[in-house]
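Students often ask why we bother encoding 3D structure as a string. The short answer is that it lets us treat folding as translation between two languages. Here is a chain of 394 residues written in the first language.
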Amino acid sequence: MFGLETDIFILLCIALLAACAFEFINGFHDTANAVATVIYTNSLKPTQAVIWSGVMNFLGVITGGVGVGMSIVNLLPVELLIDQNVYHAIAMVMALLLSAIIWNLGTWYFGIPSSSSHTLIGAIIGVGLGFALLPGNEAGIAAINWDKAKSVFSGLLLAPVIGFTLAIGLMLLLKKLLNDKAKQEIFSEPNGKSAPPFWIRSILIITCTLVSFFHGRNDGQKGIGLIMLILIGVLPTFFAVNSDFDLKAIQPDIKKINQIVDKIEVNSLSVDEQAILVSLKSEINELETLTKTPEAAEGKGLDLRRDILLISSQTKNLLDNKQLSISATERNTLRELVVKEEQGIRRVTDYAPFWAILMVSLSLGLGTMIGWKRIVITVGEKIGKTHLTYAQGA
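And here it is in the second language, the structure alphabet:
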């Protein structure tokens, strides 16, 4: 397969299975947070809840695109992914996967609802730092894409704060707006094994459904990013860019990008930004040359990926300058054609084969249906001093 030696092919299969194992564990680890609410409020029976949640996770991954997955891939620079020694690439991927799997299994065993996203991103950055500290390595701190890391960490840090704040706000709003009878219903603990009133049960099932679905669209994509890390690292010739994409489709985008970049006046830039502009123009010209004919791009997947990602990062750096000599419309055009994932020229690099998406969907969906009980008990019984009420569940 792909002309690989037998030992590399076996290692590739092991790495892909490890990525699926991570998503499988992610299923019963993280998604327990969603099913705990409907199980402990008697809205759904445990078997019904985990099967329904698994289906929603599956659908979330299948329909979610690859934007979040590409954020995972782009945490590591292209040069680090595309190592001439394929064994280095496999060692890197296996190190981050095993680290994440061991932590997730450990927290699951002790019933701790820890975030798989934090675990995975920490493992990726750990691998990058490890590479930077290796003897003889000259990449140094450039072994991590710190701009992307900052944006990802901002989301990870803000998520619990926003969740905490919104949950308090919603609870206070319910207490203020509902009449005494409704408050008595939703702020009470479940009565034995009886189901809650229809309207409360509907809300709880809807919230469980949405949490499961969007968990698939977000966390499931991280599994897609893992698989793309493996494929780009081991088989860059085949997976560095989308080989099914017609490069002629981005030629109008490149022409428009060139026209806008040519309008940027040098005297509006700092010395560092002037150097970025020179490099950006060179990369755009090289990309234009590579995409003119199929023959020009043949065997140049790595160059295409490197050019596109460099153009994207350099353009983003220039757009940070508020004094840039282009209009607001032209700024937005550059963002859409160059910076935004899965749009413009990024359509060539931001992709995943359908079989990879399907692997992750099945792994996450099946994992949701197995091993959920430990985390569910923690969420439903051990975090608070009293049983989970209907309002708390929603």
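Translate back mentally: The chain has a mean pLDDT of 84. Keep this in mind for the problem set.
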